[in-house]
Amino acid sequence: MAESTLYIVSTPIGNLGDMTPRAIETLRSVHLIAAEDTRHSSRLMQHFDIKTPMWACHDHNERAQADRILQRLSQGENIALISDAGTPLISDPGYHLVRKAREAGYRIEPVPGACAFVTALSASGLPTDRFQFEGFLPAKSKGRLERLEQVKEELRTLIYYESPHRLLDTLQAMIEVFGEERYLVLARELTKTFETIRGDSLAHLKQWVESDPNQQRGEFVLMVHGAEIVETEALDADSMHVLTTLLEELPLKQAVVLATRITGLKKKLLYQTALDLKED
Ligand code: SAM
User: Fold this and answer.
1) Would the CB of 134 count as within 6 Å of ligand 1?
2) Is the CB of 161 under 6 A from ligand 1?
3) Is the separation of the CB atoms in 90 and 161 below 8 Å?
4) pTM of the model
């Protein structure tokens, strides 16, 4: 008997033209498809005339389903995992299944295709040599701010997924943590009719999104430019004296604002120096 295989099959993120011939062939040939949402995926199956039976495998039943799927693999069957869109396991279910299948020694074969963040990044104009995929931010404001704080100084491009109803809150939280000047690229409705990719400072982008409700609809990838390396040693002795004196009397933010006015130096440089001084 041939070795059973679990196929991890990517599906389009909007445009059905992005379904690969290999994905179609794989989904037609396996015994069973484990799908995040069978009703959602039935439209895809109909479009490509795929008649393979489907099982639901989503966040809430994945651990139990993984055991049932492993059982089917043990009977010599081949199974494909798909999610609602894009690459399974990327902010989608499948982790437990793949881990268990790998532990059990089954062959796992990826069938690559669309993935929203890779698609977005490739067209963003942001550095792509090193990046950090952060998935979805926590829904609650406190958790969201904490998560952003953790990567505030990250030099690599940061990538987030976001849903329409949280978009404005997330942009506001990013302004609070990264500052309104930080550069962001927003990619909306990729591969679909209203695809929009726009880059600007966080403050300008938020204004733009607020002023046009159409820009608040659909699916989003947010990509934030990594933090700039600030050359703290560039601060001259007089400016350092101004800053340290102000820091002795005032809260950090106020001291930095005043020092910026007095010295005419960049706020970012003074802010970073002030942080370093406080830490010391
Ligand atoms: N597994 C998928 C992938 O490979 O990208 C991602 C699934 S995750 C549950 C869904 C999120 O991906 C959306 O909320 C959005 O942030 C992003 N996304 C998916 N399709 C998109 C599209 N066509 N345009 C922009 N973002 C998209």
Assistant:
1) no
2) yes
3) no
4) 0.84
Ligand 1 centroid to Cα of residue 117, in Å, is 7
pLDDT in tens, 51-89: 999 999 999 999 999 999 999 999 999 999 999 999 999
End-to-end CA distance of the chain: 67
Topology (CATH) of 5-114 = Cobalt-precorrin-4 Transmethylase; domain 1 (3.40.1010)
- The preferred substitution site among 95, 158, 220, 222 for testing ligand 1, maximizing ligand atoms within 8 Å of CB, is 220
What long-range pairs does 66-75 form, CB within 8 A, spacing at least 24? 66/96, 66/97, 66/100, 66/101, 67/100, 69/6, 69/32, 69/34, 69/97, 69/101, 70/100, 70/101, 70/104, 70/106, 72/31, 72/32, 73/4, 73/6, 73/101, 73/104, 73/106, 74/4, 74/104, 75/4
Q: Report the CATH superfamily, name and number, of domain 117-224.
A: Tetrapyrrole methylase, C-terminal domain (3.30.950.10)
196 touches ligand 1 (CB under 6 Å):
no
Cα 156 from Cα 154, distance rounded (Å):
6
Q: Is 18 in the pocket of ligand 1 (CB under 6 A)?
A: no
Q: Which residues of 117-152 are buried (b: 16+ CB within 10 A; e: fewer)?
A: bbbbbeebebeeeebebbeebeeeeeebbebbeebe
Question: How close is the Cα of 229 to the center of ligand 1, in Å?
Answer: 31
